[in-house]
Amino acid sequence: MLIAVAAPVFGALGVALAHRIPNLREALSFVAAGVTLVCVLMLLPEVLNGGRPEIVLVELLPGAALAFRLEPLGMLFALVAAVLWPISTLYSIGYMRGNDESHQSRFFACFALSIAFTLGIAFSANLLTLFLFYEALTLITYPLVSHHQDDEARRGGRVYLSYLLGTSLTLMLVAVIATWMVAGTVEFTPGGILGSEVSNSSIGILLALFIFGTGKAAVMPFHRWLPAAMVAPTPVSALLHAVAVVKAGVFTVVKVIVYIFGVDRIAGLSSVDWLIFFAGFTIIAASVVALRADNLKRRLAYSTIGQLSYVVLAAAILAPLSMIGAALHIAAHAVGKITLFFAAGAIYTGAHKTKVSELDGIGHRMPFTMIAFTVGAISMIGLPPAVGFISKWYMLQGAVSTEQWNAVAVIAASTLLNAGYFLPIVYRAFFVNAPAGSAEHGEAPWSMVVALCITAALTILLFCFPDVPLALARQMMVV
Amino acid sequence: MILDHLPALQVVVPLLAAPLIVLLRSGRAGWFITTAVSWISFVISILLFIQVQQTGVISYALGSWPPPWGIEYRVDVLSAYVLVLVSGIASVVLPYARASILAEVPSDRHYLLYSMFALFLCGLLGIAITGDAFNVFVFLEVSSLSGYVLIALGRDKRALRASFQYLIMGTIGATLYVIGVGLLYLMTGTLNLADMAERIRAVEETRPVLVALAFITVGLSLKIALFPLHVWLPGAYTFAPSAVAAFMAGTATKVSVYVLLRFVFGVFGVRLVLPDLALLEMLIIFSAVAMVVASLVALFEKDLKRLLAYSSVAQIGYITLGLGIANADGLTASVAHLFNHGVTKAALFMLVGGIVLRLGTSRMDALAGLSRRMPVTCIGVALAGLSLVGAPGTAGFITKWHLVLAALQEGQWWIVVVIAASSLLAAAYVWRFVEIAYLRQPPAGAVTKEEAPLQLLVPAWVLVAACIYFGLDTSFSLGGARDAAAFLLGGVR
Amino acid sequence: MCLPAAAATQSNDGESMTLASHYSYWMTILLMITGLYIVVARGNLIKKLIGLGIFQTSVYLIYIAPGKLIGGTAPIVAEGFKIYSNPLPHVLILTAIVVGVATLALGLALVVRIYEEYGSIEEDTILEVERRDEADQEKAGDRS
């Protein structure tokens, strides 16, 4: 487990040192990504069999150490990150070279470190460790967000930091310390650590502190950082803001609900009802904004916000089936969204277009890209044969089983809205001709296309063979 | 044999070094002697710390006059902790000082500077180790007077006025303190701190004792630079030579806090101070204001050293906040922050000294694009800045954790809000530097890549690494603080 | 022996204490306030130092005055000398006086240097010079 976290760190070092030799640098990134993936895969069988490997790193405060303990949800998250890193590295190489970006070494080095910290979050054994890596992730992604170093990047970076650091330093830190004070420990324990001596209203307040303190989960009103972070180069948006950073956010939410509060403890409490409302509102509002957004990345950003709140909503429903759906959706959305962002980046690199209104007829010139885009879109909407269908199915089942009809309504409505803002793109790309006199262009660089094809394939594959993620999610609920 | 006299040697060694350097009249010899002295002091302080951990309080009668009539040097957990802090920072700053002082101070003054440095060190160590109230005043003035001289040696002429202002305010502070001690002497008949703590029980509620508490607190607050008595600090830290600022920022105010802790908890005692007096509430209020207002001012400052100075005022607010909350976690946070902030601020001032060496100025608008020219320095500032913010993994986080915990335990939610607000402000002003250094273009015609010399970088980075190290391995910084807090609250007299 | 020095302030045979019998304390307060006022209210640096000196003198009084016992003498160990006035405050105040002298010397040295650099020892003028210098510096900084 240690190697899994250490490998990206060493990769980052290697990249920084090799910054004069681009090919060596890229190779080192791949090697690190490969090593990480292998390590994470090696941990998988153990966890599936019920094992919970753990390491204690250092005793930070008496009673609270920096420690790793791997459990099913963390395993799922780690798998997602580890699998998608090599693919994004492939994609990033194409993108950075295709667009002749500057400061590539810094980019790859920070990228590697972000993965290291993401794995740290996935492996964390208690709130303290999670908080530490969470903050570290925010800080290390800042150079990636403001990569272009122009005024726009600076502004975007500032919004990014202020939202994320603001919520975590004020709300989340207080939540962690309050939990420590109330429960005497911050270890993640199946069934939660808040005993019956904690009053229900305190639980409500604590939950609020956690949910809103986890700015990375982008629950409204703390969502503005996501669109602001779109100033970053697309590989950054793809991996980090479709996968690592936002997933860290919802992962934290689910983990806290399952392992700190305990599903049984808070099911049925009136003081936690508001969460469904906020999550539902975020989903609808984000989808509406996405409908009207013309900038492709902006549309995808708001789609992400909505999809993240799916996870929060599913977790808030607190039914076993919906929790499984929530965990599954972490993986489902990751592969789907990364495909979409890869496609957006490919469109930008190959055709230099950023707006939806410019995408007429692009399907003919960039078939692979747009087919992959379609697959990703289908997953977002939640239709077979994409994996997004499975996670949505579980969420719906969970909502129905607890008779949360408003949640069902939200999911249904937002599915329609998702279709509303994704399908027109697909339609225009394939069935509308490009305006006369538009420039000739072909596909994006091959490495980008290969990458996005792989992720699109994964989306479909996971639909066909959902065993591993499903097994992990089920284990999380059983224990 | 030497081991028996360690407490005395702790003070005597630097004390003797000062006139020796003046006699030798050589800057280089002065630096060498002072560095050697600081390392010896560091070793002595560590030996004393270990001894205290093993055998409990060390009581040393100076000149073999038995206490409470003679002056007693009393080393307990708290004083040992402070001794290690002061001598440790001195040991790291002095190797750094050579190159920095060479650039900032005319060479005919060097030996005087080092002589004063040795005296300053002697004074600080003396304050921490002595067990006699008036002796504290003497060492306080020794350190203050040498401090005034050190500041006045800065190359900007504003250093003179800053030093003068510090002189006036510092002397008033020390005098108020000594008035308080006089009143205490009137009422208890002794000057020995431990003895006073026992005798004061008989005369606790009398007016002179309460007035004495007031005088001592206000007097020390001037030295601590607690808002609103902080006015001297920005000028002093900005215009002093960088090495001096680094050492002072890490130690001078901290030692005065130590004296306040010693009096409020060790002499007057928890029983008197907590229930009836508004002292602790007022401390909390002033600390809260300090934390927010000083951070706000820092945010808009145009000079990096001045920004760090105001940041110090805010961080001192953290320390006194913990003191005001006065439960186990609060005091632990207070004492731990003496250490954590000392290390952090010394590191920052040292790095800025490197910047001043290369650029000749510390104005923010001259620092644009600094990351290209001095990459290692900028990373160091960013990392140490994270400790100021209290990001997890750094020393500052440990303090923050305990402060919030302390506040929550007392149910004082508004304090938590204040701590959060000031952390955000700290993040804002640290990020101002990061943005300017990393995201702006360097001014046209700027020299390319000229990192600060190794002599400056290495000691500075030792402390930056310490910030991170003590954020992860807290056994010394937190363990010592915890013991000290328990000692203070337990009323071990 | 350390007699609680407070005993000295009370009349030995229970006479009521009059305002006048606390003459030294009134002087202490007067000196303290006068000194502080001068420091704060006067802009001339030398006057500030004078005020500081006056302030410090009040401290000397507050130590020494209670040390005198009514009917006490210097501590002479011999026949016929029973009550000693407390000698300790004298020692302490000697130290304090030395500290005060050192402070004054340092302060005066600083004033001399300030005069060399600024051409004045009035605080207002000095602040004016500083403000002008900073404004010049900023203009130079903006231009570059």
CATH topology of chain C: Helix Hairpins
Please state the overall shape of chain C, judged from the principal axes of the Cα atoms. elongated
Strand segment tally of chain C: 0
Q: Give the largest interface.
A: B-C, 38 and 41 residues
**Element order of chain A: H for helix, E for strand:** HHEEHHHHHHHHHHHHHHHHH
Largest sheet descriptor of chain C = none
Helix segment count of chain A?
A: 19
Q: Roughly how much helix do the residues of chain C carry, as a percent range?
A: 55-70%
Q: Roughly what is the average pLDDT of chain A, rounded to an integer?
A: 77
Explain the overall architecture.
The complex is a heterotrimer of chains A (479), B (493) and C (144). Chain A is mainly α and 479 residues long. Chain A has a domain of 207 residues. Chain A contains 19 helices and two strands. Chain A has a two-stranded antiparallel ribbon with strand order 1-2. Chain A starts with a helix and ends with a helix. The model of chain A has no long low-confidence stretch (mean pLDDT 77). In chain B, helix 3 runs parallel beside helix 13 and helix 12 runs antiparallel to helix 13. With 493 residues, chain B is mainly α. Chain B has a domain of 204 residues. In chain B, strands 1-2 form a two-stranded antiparallel ribbon. In chain C, helix 1 packs antiparallel against helix 2 and helix 2 runs antiparallel to helix 3. The N terminus of chain C is likely disordered. Chain C is elongated. Chain C has one domain: Helix Hairpins. With 144 residues, chain C is mainly α. Chains in contact: A-B, B-C. Chains B and C meet through helix 5 and helix 6 of B and helix 1, helix 2, helix 3 and helix 4 of C.
